[in-house]
């Protein structure tokens, strides 16, 4: 399912919740009832109280408040990470985003985490929460399931720390539409040499600056693969591409 279809589906689900026709929701469920159930499950009372104040003030309707809490409660019940959804809700409230838009974002994120666990369960047992968060966040921000599936299928046997670094590179580079074949080539070189250290998650910064300078993804990928083969650093990549860590921060 492409990203547009996911957003449309999330929109439909949220509207159903707002109008009180979600199949799994009882007619008697009010915001207060849903809030109580969410707190009992483990959702932060702080962010729920923020929603409650807006419902009390009439800024949000009772149904809108309930719909905003429902994805957090669902994540808790399904034993998915709650913090990313809580943070997203708090961010939306702080920016005074319309409840419909916040609800859509929460539903997209919830769906992404469910898909992430499904993908990871094919290759990992148990699924560590840090890997689940990386993959879930990547999917929620447009990284394709295929890219993660290809990574998991090829590299799932790697040691935990560097496997996590590789997953984060797939996520971060995928979010800027970096060529996935180049990313996999880099990771192959890094795993083979043992040079894929946690600092390589910051390669995305180099990619963004290199693109501004007109350097293609193919060149960035080839240079990065070469540096990884030699157990070099991210700074070595920027130097070979013609700029330094000082120029990356705007210093002269």
Features:
disordered N terminus; 0% strand; single chain; mainly alpha; 14 helices
Outline the secondary-structure elements.
Blueprint: H1 3-18, H2 31-41, H3 45-57, H4 62-77, H5 83-94, H6 99-121, H7 129-140, H8 145-155, H9 160-175, H10 180-193, H11 203-212, H12 217-229, H13 234-241, H14 245-248
Helix pairs in contact: 1-6, 2-3, 2-4, 3-4, 4-6, 5-6, 6-7, 6-8, 7-9, 8-9, 9-10, 10-12, 12-13
Could you characterize the architecture of this molecule?
There is one protein chain. The chain is mainly alpha-helical and 252 residues long. The chain has 2 domains: 1-124, no CATH class; 143-252, no CATH class. Helix content is 71%, strand content 0%. The longest helix has 23 residues, at 99-121. 38% of the residues are buried.
What's a quick, concise take on this entry?
The chain has 14 helices and no strands. The chain is mostly helical.
Fraction of residues in β-strands: under 5%
Helix coverage percent: over 70%
Number of strands: 0
Task: Name the average pLDDT.
Answer: 88
Structural class by sheet pairing and helices: mainly alpha
| Helix and strand pattern | HHHHHHHHHHHHHH
Cα separation of the termini: 46 Å
Helix count, DSSP H or I runs of 4 or more residues: 14
The low-pLDDT segments are 3-13, 15-28
